[in-house]
Predict the structure of histidine kinase.
Amino acid sequence: TEELLVNTEKLAAVGQMAASVAHEIRNPLTTIRGFIQLAEKGFEESHAQLILEEIDRINLIVSEFLVLSKPNVVHFQNKNVKKVLEETIALFQAQASMNNIEVITEAITDSCRVHCNENQLKQVFINIFKNSVEAMPLGGQLIIRMEETPDAKVMIRITDTGEGMEAEQIQKLGTPFYTTKEAGTGLGYMIIKHIIEQHKGTLNIRSKVKKGTTVEMVLPISSME
Ligand code: ADP
Ligand code: MG
């Protein structure tokens, strides 16, 4: 019966998720419909821009959700997480400097092999970096650390000196569409949590308003070469 209970909970969660996706997509669709209706009476240039923006928003929401549909078929391989992390940092460097953010890498452990899907892991790092950048509109520091734990796991810690969060905000992370940003989707943490779960890892977030945020993830090290 325990398994049945878990399944029922999962179904309820899927139902809730479907309802919120439908809601988030219906909003821009309603806007688009309104503008097209207006266009019958003469098309205004500025409306075209708004319609495009709403279509882009639907596209973004749908593509973020696609990530969740893939894990069943994604390929897992043993990868050196140091390399995956450093490649992602390199990709991010330009965006960081443009935003006056200094990226500091501390004590990155040499080689830890993790059974992972490289692209998904990169997506987790990118989502966390992006949130940090968005939390530091006036610039700041992004401090990245990676070390092996005594129990054969690898810990990756990302700290920013941004606006931080209240405890209630931290609680809401991962709830689909929870965002405090005007152009946010509120899907970042849902995806981060899902991928970390797929990798049998854990996630821990600490934050202080106006001080900054620390995101810590722990992943099991693969014993096979
Ligand atoms: P989005 O970035 O689209 O808003 P996320 O799921 O990535 O969605 O984040 C949800 C919310 O959590 C953000 O809107 C923000 O309020 C808060 N948040 C996430 N990361 C940070 C951070 N590093 N510093 C401050 N607030 C954050
Ligand atoms: Mg985000």
